[in-house]
Amino acid sequence: MKISYAWLRDYLQLELPADELAEKIERTAVEVDGVIRPSEGLKKVVVGHVLECVEHPDSDHLHICQVDVGEEEPIQIVCGAPNVAAGEMVIVALPNSWIGGHTKIKRSKMRGVVSNGMLCALDELGFDEKLVPKEVADGIFILPADATPGEPVFSYLGMDDEIIDMSVTPNRGDMLSMNGTAHELAAIYDQTPKMPTVALTEDANDLADDALTVTVEADEHDVPTYKMRLIKNVTIKPSPLWLQIRIWNAGMRPINNVVDATNYILMQYGQPLHAFDYDKLSAGHVNVRLAKAGEKLTTLDDEERDLLPTDLVICSDDQPICLAGTMGGLATEVTNETTTIALESAVFDAVRVRKTAHNHGLHSEASMRYERGIDHSATQTALDAAAAMIAELGDGTVATGTVAGREETIAPVVVDITLSRINHVLGTDLTMDTVADIFRRLDFPTTINEDTLTVTIPARRWDIHIPADLIEEVARLYGYDNLPSTLPTGQPTIGKLNETQQLIRDTRKLMESAGLTQAISYSLTTPAKAQAFELHASEVTKLDFPMSSERSALRLNLISGLLDDLAYNNARKEQDVALYETGRVFFSQPEQVRPHEVEHLAGAITGSMVPAEWGIAAQPIDFYQIKGIVAGYLKSLALADPITYVASADHPEMHPGRTADIYVGDRLVGFVGQVHPNTTKAYKIRETYVFELDLAALIALPKERQQYQPISKFPSITRDVAMLINDDITNAQVVDLITDKGGAHLRSVKLFDVYNGKHVPAGKKSLAYTLTYQDQNATLVDDDVTAAFDKVLKALTTEFDAEIR
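== Phenylalanine--tRNA ligase beta subunit ==
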């Protein structure tokens, strides 16, 4: 909300600097983004009077102008604007002046003719092109005839004003108007604001009821108030300059006297209005209802829109002509041929308007105010004020009476609160007189009965309903800086991480020590990506009103987000990327009200984790490298149950021959492997390996106590064994058997050779292992090792029919 300081002075006596006022607003009411000074950085830009304008001899569009700029002699300026003419008052940038965009204007020649400056359009002074009136969008701006040549131009364009840009929070919709802001500042500075009055003259011989019929079919909650007035014999023309200045300083584009009047009242009262061309209505019939399936409406932006059953629409003879509270329809637009205006002022349900604005992407000044709430008591006043202004600016007449389709009864909110409660919450020792004076400054009528204050809340402050709201008002006006500062009492508690938090933090450290970088992905994705890489079956949780089609469902996995991150990096020539993420996924079943949030851990690696250096070749990531990262992490958890990896083809997005499910005991806790080539092609990434673990399940599983064990002081003894064994027997089975039969002193079993080629029978393979024996307390005797080793050989021969070589 952009607030003109000059406009504020119409309400209040304010002489303090704009920066100080903005700082006070920010400390007391709402945030302020900054103070805008339109003339800042501009220099030597003055009013000029075009004395003579002739065609350039060597150009078909340039003009040579003699311009009076208040000096002894006119200056010559070459200008290409189509609307320049003798006798006009124009904006002149003198030689060595500075205009918008920090541009310096110098003397120059244009097609051989000297030009001592420049005639300026508004956008050349720094105006946003969207705010420039259409009639001068392609040319220079023409100043009023009474402008004085040579004077700085800024006061004529409202550029000497200071604009306070407020970031109004949703709970303070009352400050989305000049009236509301004036009431707030009046309370802050203890002044009585000079509020605008409405001088409406009606034509007694012309009754609005005779020409307009208004019915409201929508629910009373959706449309509590709907009123219209009729203004006849209106001449559509540009607004006077003072009104255009107020409009563009508020961040809106001047259109014509009718539209500008509705926008001016919108800014003044915070009440959205809409003007219809009465002659384009069907016999003056207007009705308000919910849209029907299949209906369409072409809005003022010339876009045809498919209406939804949740949309409130204004109709004429049951044909939609306007999206209520959002945007008007093109068919009833006010044009230069319009002579009669049907003016609407209404209250629409905030939720309805918000849904319509979101669904159609039509976020307007009107919808913003309806969404945050408006002053229901100002509906008629704003309607009367706009009708009076349109009649005055358009030389028209206002028909007698207001045609109401529905009108609500507005009952004031009354809140009781005690002085002791206020002081208890704020930690203050305020007197009754101090609190009562704050409510007086806020213009809240108050009665006092012993310790209780009964406060009547005006309709313009619809955000106040309960005692806590009044306590906040007292705190704001008393001053947050004046509230006492106290330290908390009681025994302090030493902060620490709980077991889950500590394990998640340790997980991040372990992943980063393994060479992975933390990534944070969106929790929202597409339904297709949400269902990919599922660890457990689940329904997809979809959003009713997603911000975009790419963010319409809650994720069921972390890998999809990591693959998006890999694709982002690969597209920017980063080929070696290793990422991990800890975060929540959202599982849902049909009977659940809300999804179940589960903590997961995932990683994704592409390229090489060991970059090529002198004497070292790059090592592309493979299954065993990422499995080693996972195995190292799981080992750090000291899980009580055994960990097994089972080859799996159950994940369609994963390579069926290079993927393994991970079990702890009998519980599936994750998977690891290579992403399917078709999936990597879809993401536009190279060969990639991933893993995903159910971190919540791993945290919940039983753990063994991790105890320190000193390194043995005594030497170890090794034995090697090579064997021929059937192809269908896995390394894991062999290692498990050796570990089981190897005795108490067996410390490790390592596979150091695999052969399956020449001289090996079909269906067989050759495996070779090194077994390491060591005693913690004494030097091993060779006979003891040999006895234990013989048990291993016998078990291999008996259980696996191995041939020891």
